[in-house]
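Board notes (copied after class):
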Amino acid sequence: MPLYKTVKNSGTFQIYLWKIEESESWLARDIVLTPHCQDRLEGMKSELHRRGFLSIRHLLAQAGYTDADLFYDEAGKPHLKDGTHISITHSFEFTGIILSKKQEVGIDIEKQRDKILRIAHRFTPVKEYRTLANDQALIRKLTMVWGAKESIYKIMGIHGLSFLNHIRVSEFDMDQGQTRAGVLIKGISGKFEVYFMEFEGFTLAYALSV
């Protein structure tokens, strides 16, 4: 199944999602990689990671770009040569990109797993969510919070940025599918709008700088 879903907002941003169901050989067809990215691909031991890497190049093509248009800075943050802001995510069988010519953007896809209950204290004050009805609701909420913070982390690109200490996500109703968040670190601040989507046991979060 090629393109899984697109989300577009009045020319402000575009999201492209891929569900990886194709073979590696199929995904490699018609994709031209730079020598650097070819080396990266060949160095990946996991077939799923290689398929994810290639599927992202198909998403770039959907948006009108090639692998040669993409580059990374010293912090590992992706950029497009024409100045369009881009963020990339990969989780199990899903990959996604978000692009915007107007503002900084970040994206994250996470599988909803009970593992997040064990690590939640590392990225958020868990007590804030203990009023939720059951563990499944808590897993959903914590996955959204993690995705929000990961998306913002990708935007900021600052070494030492702590999910727990520097990124604050405002309380939100899961059914509303959106919230606000802020960052404060070493005198650097940022404000963001964050949106959520859920599908097939996964959570998509994307952040827009405001």
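Comment from the instructor: The mean pLDDT is 94. The chain is about 30% helix and 35% strand.
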